[in-house]
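Subject: for your reference before the review

Hello V.,

The reviewers asked for a structural picture of the protein, and I figured it would be easier to keep everything in one thread rather than splitting it across files. Below is the amino acid sequence we used in the manuscript, unchanged from the supplementary table.
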Amino acid sequence: MSVQLLRRLFTVDQYYKMLEAGVFTENERVELIRGEIVKMSPMGIRHSASVKCLAELFILRLAQTVTVGIQDPVRLNNTSEPQPDISLLQRRPDFYETRHPQPEDVFLLIEVSDTTIKYDREIKVPLYAENNIVEVWLVNLTEECLEVYRKPTANGYKIVQTFQRGETVTIQALPHITFTVDEILGD
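And here is what came back from the structure prediction:
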């Protein structure tokens, strides 16, 4: 006989009230996924280095074109506010001072994955598709490749491509700018 556990799901507003009340601190690595507060995995050295490398790459190449978010929240809906490793966003004069970015603000979300590959593929990427994030990159450090997800639907992404070292890739919203997979994975 299986046991059905009852779960208490939270909204983004309730999540922030818990933060204000000191239930957890701003420095705790948690994110709200489908109403559940999920503790994020500790960040290893390679993962951390990859995020820094990507941040520098996108800031240097796209500084006047997009706003680059680094492990910042993106409010997908009333019950999900993940913190992707990198977000490329529409530029706003206030740099999102009055609200976190929402799906319509996003050009690209990037998740760097080593130990979290299963979670990122099975939980976060489908969540991004359901909320109409137009493009997601999964930097797969374990297999040394880049997985690109495009054309979101309620059931996932219609286009899923894998790019290897030596190949090039563009962001569909910025097709005139090319990146090598070697740049993305780190030379």
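For the response letter, the relevant points are probably these. Strands lie at 30-33, 36-39, 67-70, 86-89, 106-113, 135-140, 145-153, 156-164, 168-171, 174-180. The mean pLDDT is 94.

Happy to draft the paragraph if you're swamped.

O.
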